[in-house]
Amino acid sequence: MQAYILINCNTGSETSVIAELRKIPEIIEINGIWGKYDIFIKVKTPDPDGIELITKRLRNHPDITDTFTMHVLYGQGGSIDQES
């Protein structure tokens, strides 16, 4: 299972939230971003319930105020660097 998650957090807490998120092994990419959201993460887990568990963990973090989860649909697209 793979998902992209957009995160909003309390102003000024972005750096510390990113540092904490780096400790979660299922998060394979993390970036601070500008715009409506503060942080972008890519999550990959073999467990079908893994994305839900990570989302719950994020929502319980005291500095995270909002999340938006986008589940990947396999078979539609893929990485542009993959061979066809």
UniProtKB/TrEMBL annotation:
It comes from the Archaea. SUPFAM superfamilies: Dimeric alpha+beta barrel. Residues 5-73 form the Transcription regulator AsnC/Lrp ligand binding domain. Pfam families: AsnC_trans_reg. Gene3D superfamilies: 3.30.70.920. This is AsnC family transcriptional regulator. It comes from Candidatus Nitrosopumilus sediminis.
